[in-house]
Each structure stands twice: as C-alpha cells, then as structure tokens.
Amino acid sequence: MGDAILSALASKIMGNLNSPILQELGLAGDLKTELENLNMLRTIQAVLQDAEEKQRNSEPINCGKITAI
User: Fold this and answer.
1) DSSP H or E segment with residue 9
2) What span, in angstroms and rounded, lies between the C-alpha atoms of 60 and 63?
3) Rounded CA gap, 57 and 37, in Å?
4) Half-sphere exposure for 24 (CA within 13 Å, toward CB)
5) Stronger pLDDT, 42 or 18, i.e. the higher one
6) More confident residue, 20 or 57
7) Residue 23: pLDDT above 70?
8) pTM passes above 0.90
9) Which of 3, 9, 31, 67 is the most buried (most CB within 10 A)?
C-alpha cells in the first residue's frame, strides 16, 4: 500500500515539474533528478522483493551433511 501511495505522489510531482514557477526558480531539474533516483531505488527494491519471493517459493538445495566448525 505504501508503494502505491508513493507512486501516486511521484506521478503527481512529475506532472507538476512543468510548472513555470518551478522552472523559473530552477527547482524542476533538482526535483526531477531526485525523482529519478527514487524510481531507481523503487526498481531495486522491486527486484530484491522478487528475489526474496522466488527464494521462499523454491525448493531448498540439498547440500548434503553440513557440520559446524
């Protein structure tokens, strides 16, 4: 649910980046960079979540008898 809210917020902000006031103040570029970084972090998070899900759903690997050192 948090991802959906964050995504909606990011979309709203991206839509407002063309605001003449933001462009005049030079803030549009900074916000766009930050949102691109946020999107990259969300992509990384999605990949990690997918890997965790696959790990949970896959059969464990039989490594034979493992002894503690």
Assistant:
1) helix 2-16
2) 9
3) 30
4) 3
5) 42
6) 57
7) no
8) no
9) 31
**Coil, helix or strand for 37?**
helix
Residue 54 corresponds to which tokens in the numbers above? Answer: 């696959």
Q: What are phi and psi of 67, to 5 degrees?
A: -110, 145
**Residue positions counted in the chain:** 69
Residues 17 and 31: beta-carbon distance below 8 Å: yes
Token pair listed for 44 = 């990384």
Rounded CA gap, 36 and 16, in Å? 15
66: its two tokens: 């493992």
Listed in sequence order, the residues at least 6 apart from 13 whose beta carbon sits closer than 8 Å to its beta carbon are: 31, 35
